[in-house]
Amino acid sequence: MDLVEKLKNDVKEIEDWIIQIRRKIHENPELSYKEYSTSKLVAETLRKLGIEVEEGVGLPTAVVGKIRGNKPGKTVALRADMDALPVEETSDVEFRSKVKGVMHACGHDTHVAMLLGGAYLLVKNKDLISGEIRLIFQPAEEDGGLGGAKPMIEAGVMNGVDYVFGIHISSSYPSGVFATRKGPIMATPDAFKIVVHGKGGHGSAPHETIDPIFVSLQIANAIYGITARQIDPVQPFVISITTIHSGTKDNIIPDDAEMQGTIRSLDENVRSKAKDYMRRIVSSVCGIYGATCEVKFMEDVYPITVNNPEVTDEVMKILSSISTVVETEPVLGAEDFSRFLQKAPGTYFFLGTRNEKKGCIYPNHSSKFCVDEDVLKLGALAHALLAIKFSNK
Question: Are 197 and 291 in contact (CB under 8 A)?
């Protein structure tokens, strides 16, 4: 029996177990940096499987498992993020979130369950492993600022790693379909804040004021022109202003206004150019209307997620032995798995969960987000298969 058939038979033993783990985590979601019960479940499960466990790697809720083969080989890291989102679940599944205002709306519950399933398969087939398999259970991917990957890396989780792989469940693809690409696959999220300082006054006499709301609207219109007229249209790129705050009463023109938003790009030159254009636009528009302005960009944001071309080519061939594989277009979402890929070559890929018959049609981050649980065994299978194959390279 070849490796793929062996693993396919083995995963049948734990298909329901994987689903039950996922449901338990789904019922008890935890926000970034607060994944206490989730990390406890992970550590206990790994120990029951006989896996060496290290807790508190860089963050209190981070967990790392290590499976060592019987002969020298490569070190392969597999990563699952664990945190939930501040979303009130509106689906009617029997295992819906028990925590008000918190939900696994991005599928991280499935990521944990699939990697634990992969761990089971790897332990059962330990004689096929060379080197070391490192299981990374990461907190705080959804934080969007520092994120959980960076402190784990600083604590040494990627030391000696030769390859790294990660899976993200996605409703953008049909159930059971793997999707990835060589090169940039996810964007960098440059969050920005623009503060406009004007001169307040009475709403009946705007000519006596410097209206920061009016100035903000001119800035917003000009900024949206960056996409249309300054950036090569074949480049994946977007600017979105997502909040505008100003004022207290209908007859008062305020002193200040604040806007926040995000720039998403897949190219460092485009990213730099867009930020430069934005600074110039804000400065010029404010100057025209006599206001003063500040532009601030969040520092140390998630880098562009870049898949190693050679590794990804091999990953696509390996995954095609267990399911359909498609080459996807880049996604303008962001991921701190990008930081792991800066430390070792590897691949980030999606596993589709869209199934109209089961009502799994809502996008990630929706309050109705639904997962076709039949695909979870494929995620576990993919983890184990890639780990064994690349540990023996």
Answer: yes
Of the listed 120, 163, 173, 302, which one is catalytic? 302
Give the whole-angstrom CA distance, residue 240 versus residue 102. Answer: 25
> How would residue 299 be classed by pLDDT, with cut points 50, 70 and 90?
confident
Contact call for residues 382 and 178 (beta carbons, < 8 A): yes
**298: number of Cβ within 10 Å:** 14
Q: What is the pLDDT of residues 202-260, one digit of tens each?
A: 999 999 999 999 999 999 999 999 999 999 999 999 999 999 999 999 999 999 999 99
Q: What is the CATH number of domain 187-297?
A: 3.30.70.360
Q: Domain-by-domain residue ranges, the chain?
A: 3-182+308-391, 187-297
Residues with Cβ within 8 Å of residue 316, at least 6 apart in sequence: 178, 180, 325, 327
Could you give the count of Cα atoms lying within 13 Å of 209 in the half-sphere of its Cβ? Answer: 21
13 labelled catalytic = no
Q: Is 168 flagged in the annotation as binding?
A: yes
CA 308 centroid distance within chain: 18
Is 362 known to be catalytic? no
Which CATH number is 3-182+308-391 given? 3.40.630.10
pTM of the model: 0.93
365 is in an annotated binding site: yes
Dig out the tokens for 249 from the structure: 């009463």
Report whether 165 contacts 383 (CB < 8 A).
Answer: yes
DSSP per position, 230-263 = TS-TTS-EEEEEEEEEE-SSTTEE-SEEEEEEEE
Token readout for 95 is 């295992």
User: Is 300 exposed, middle or buried (CB count within 10 Å of its CB: 0-12, 13-18, 19+)?
Assistant: exposed
Rg (CA), the chain: 24
Q: Which residue has tokens 């209307």?
A: 289
- How far apart CA 40 and CA 42 sit, in angstroms, is 5
Burial class (CB in 10 A: 0-12, 13-18, 19+), 38: buried
* 207 known ligand binder: no
| Residue 106 in marked binding region | yes
Dig out the tokens for 228 from the structure: 């249309």
- The alpha carbon of 285 is separated from its chain's Cα centroid by a whole number of angstroms, namely 35
